[in-house]
Design brief:
Layout: H1 2-8, H2 14-20, H3 27-31, E1 43-50, H4 57-66, E2 72-75, H5 77-82, H6 84-92, E3 96-99, H7 112-130, H8 146-154, E4 159-160, E5 164-165, H9 168-171, H10 174-183, E6 189-194, H11 198-213, E7 216-219, H12 221-225, E8 235-236
Parallel strand pairs: 1-2, 1-6, 1-7, 2-3, 4-8, 5-6
Helix pairs in contact: 1-7, 4-11, 6-7, 7-8, 10-11
Length: 238
């Protein structure tokens, strides 16, 4: 459905996108919202998962639910279209859903209108699946520059990168991913992982167990931000 929409979306839809990006969540989303954690007073770490939803995301959600933690998923629009029920579950269980473009496009190689179209299509796919529109986006490959930030600003979204990457897509080993993830932990850090990597999903119980031992609270990106509001086009961490 949204492949056709992408052909006509562009800068002309940016104003509408910007006005709806902060729309309030549905009642079911509010019901699944995690209890507030003050990351100024306790040690927090934001775990983020890119490129899904995938065939492994359901197992990851099971682990997160059993450990009573919330994370941020940066989803790809075409994958949302394939697995809308998984995105609904993310929202229902209180996780944060961010925009990771429609086709996992390297935005530094895209035209301005194409960037907005990639984002707009994904916003609408998530809304159709789960009744919300993401408030954050992450550029695929972390590829950004001044022009990309300007286009993302037009779309009404801030950019979220990371303080450390597990490079799980390269390691493909549960023990190695666990060691790498834990080596990146620091207060209010943002760790990049992928729910398309099955070894990452298998590593999560051990990672969460060790984080508890270190007295860390696993939270969403927005929880790390607390009362700080990112502006459209702003990059975090800077």
């Amino acid at each position: 459905m949204w492949r056709g929409v992408r052909a006509v979306l562009g800068i002309a839809v940016a104003a509408t996108l910007a006005s709806t990006v902060a729309a309030p969540p549905s009642a079911s989303a509010a019901a699944g919202k995690a209890a507030a954690v003050n990351c100024k007073k306790v040690k927090c770490i934001a775990l983020t998962f890119d490129d899904g939803p995938s065939p492994y995301t359901g197992a990851l959600l099971d682990t997160l639910r059993s450990n009573k933690v919330k994370v941020t998923f940066f989803v790809v629009g075409r994958q949302v279209e394939k697995r809308p029920s998984v995105v609904r579950r993310m929202v229902r269980e209180g996780h944060e859903v961010g925009n990771h473009t429609w086709d996992h496009t390297r935005l530094t190689d895209a035209l301005d209108g194409e960037i907005v179209s990639e984002l707009s299509s994904t916003q609408e796919a998530v809304h159709e699946a789960a009744g919300i529109r993401p408030k954050l986006m992450r550029p695929p490959f972390g590829a950004t520059d001044q022009r990309v930030r300007a286009a993302v600003q037009t779309a009404g979204l801030p950019l979220v990168l990371w303080t450390g990457s597990t490079r799980d897509w390269e390691l493909r080993n549960t023990k190695a991913i666990t060691r790498k993830a834990l080596s990146l932990v620091r207060p209010n850090g943002v760790i990049l992982m992928h729910d398309i990597v099955p070894e990452t999903v298998k590593a999560m119980p051990g990672i969460l167990s060790e984080l508890r031992k270190r007295d860390y609270h696993v939270v969403t990106v927005s929880s790390v931000l607390g009362d700080r509001k990112l502006e459209a086009g702003e990059q975090y961490p800077s």
